[in-house]
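hiii so um. not sure if this is the right channel but i have a protein structure encoded as tokens and i wanna go backwards to a sequence. like what aa goes where. can anyone help
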């Protein structure tokens, strides 16, 4: 309510009541001013009602929501179903322009603001909260991790048009591998090294592959911080040194890694000692957002046309919790990881079972025993866990996870 309106309101009800109401409205304006000036996550989270109000105000800045709007063009942000329009806060123009996701959308000042702010908040999150201070910029993409990875590769291709290969430190999750194929690359798969019951990065084999195929023919080296046991996080700093020495881009699949101080540290350290071109991580896995993916650029730039609902979700969820809550939540996560790990170690201390340091997953490996052989198969064990309402746990038999099938035959229990 501006001064003229509050003066008019004071003619209807007592001005002292109007003044106290107006000061409440002004405190909202102050929060918005702080946000626009600092472009960073507030110390204290905002209540849902405030986030709702602010988004609605931004939405009012999009031309389809101008009160006197007469949309005569063929693309005026019309939405056929009211329910869909409400779900998107009436923000219906989308973001970006002419194939450039970072460009402002002329008919949508509000949407453009939300996207820029959401990218700034995401960068603040990874730098300030996760400690990856060496990351330089960030873009939120409305895509899954694998597809975002492909976009990064296609972007890199512009700078290395002749490169047809990608060196991929194997991890048994398909997204990244499919991303390499989608980008039209020929993957050179480097098998991991077995260390005890962990599978670790084969740094020497990665360097040998670079030399064998020629650095100029390699689009990038792709590594993973956090994936399924028995793989442990890749030695990103060591690989980043190879990338720097041979002038080959390095792209990191950090799908789950934002929640792990260890994974974030590995990436930050890699930026310091070597070369990292892009890091891809998922919003739903790390930020409790029902969206998809972040791609953090360090050197290269990723461009793609997008709709805005993922940026909106990041904006809302990051603001809902603020710095204070987010930091304590991350602290809780770290604590829980250590506690579960400690619990496993304690419970299994008298058995032959080893509990490796997981990075992300807690798992323990069981050597073959007669009792295990009598047990149902891994899928049956998984079903019985599900029947006990246990989600996110998985039990699997992993044969030949690395080079030697005969040597490597374990049961892994993740949770
Ligand atoms: C290592 C790794 N990368 C990527 C993903 C997810 O990829 P996407 O978002 O493409 O499904 C996962 C999910 O489990 C994963 O473990």
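sure thing!! here u go:
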């Amino acid at each position: 309510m501006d001064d003229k309106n509050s003066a008019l309101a004071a003619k209807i009800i007592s001005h002292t009541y109007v003044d106290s109401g107006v000061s409440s409205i002004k405190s909202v304006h102050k929060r918005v001013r702080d946000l626009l000036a600092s472009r960073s996550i507030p110390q204290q989270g905002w209540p849902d009602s405030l986030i709702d109000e602010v988004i609605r105000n931004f939405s009012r800045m999009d031309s389809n929501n101008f009160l006197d709007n007469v949309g005569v063009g063929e693309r005026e942000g019309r939405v056929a179903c009211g329910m869909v329009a409400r779900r998107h806060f009436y923000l219906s123009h989308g973001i970006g322009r002419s194939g450039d996701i970072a460009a402002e959308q002329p008919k949508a000042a509000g949407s453009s603001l939300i996207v820029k702010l959401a990218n700034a908040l995401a960068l603040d999150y990874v730098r300030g909260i996760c400690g990856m201070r060496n990351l330089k910029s960030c873009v939120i993409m409305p895509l899954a991790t694998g597809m975002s990875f492909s976009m990064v590769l296609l972007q890199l291709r512009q700078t290395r048009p002749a490169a047809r290969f990608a060196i991929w430190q194997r991890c048994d999750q398909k997204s990244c591998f499919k991303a390499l194929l989608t980008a039209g690359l020929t993957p050179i798969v480097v098998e991991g090294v077995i260390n005890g019951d962990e599978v670790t990065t084969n740094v020497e084999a990665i360097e040998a592959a670079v030399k064998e195929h020629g650095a100029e023919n390699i689009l990038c080296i792709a590594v993973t911080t956090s994936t399924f046991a028995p793989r442990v996080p890749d030695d990103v700093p060591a690989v980043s040194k190879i990338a720097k020495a041979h002038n080959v881009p390095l792209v990191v699949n950090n799908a789950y890694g934002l929640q792990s101080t260890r994974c974030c540290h590995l990436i930050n350290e890699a930026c310091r000692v070597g070369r990292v071109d892009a890091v891809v991580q998922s919003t739903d896995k790390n930020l409790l957002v029902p969206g998809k993916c972040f791609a953090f650029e360090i050197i290269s730039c990723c461009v793609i046309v997008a709709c805005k609902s993922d940026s909106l979700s990041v904006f809302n969820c990051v603001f809902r919790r603020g710095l204070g809550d987010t930091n304590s939540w991350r602290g809780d996560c770290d604590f829980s990881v250590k506690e579960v790990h400690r619990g496993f170690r304690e419970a299994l201390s008298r058995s032959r079972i080893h509990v490796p340091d997981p990075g992300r997953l807690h798992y323990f490996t069981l050597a073959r025993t007669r009792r295990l052989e009598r047990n149902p198969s891994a899928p049956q064990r998984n079903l019985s866990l599900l029947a006990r309402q246990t989600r996110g746990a998985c039990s699997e038999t992993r044969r030949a996870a690395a080079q030697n099938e005969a040597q490597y035959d374990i049961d892994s229990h993740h949770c």
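oh and Residues 109-321 form a domain with the Aspartate Aminotransferase; domain 2 fold (CATH 3.40.640.10).
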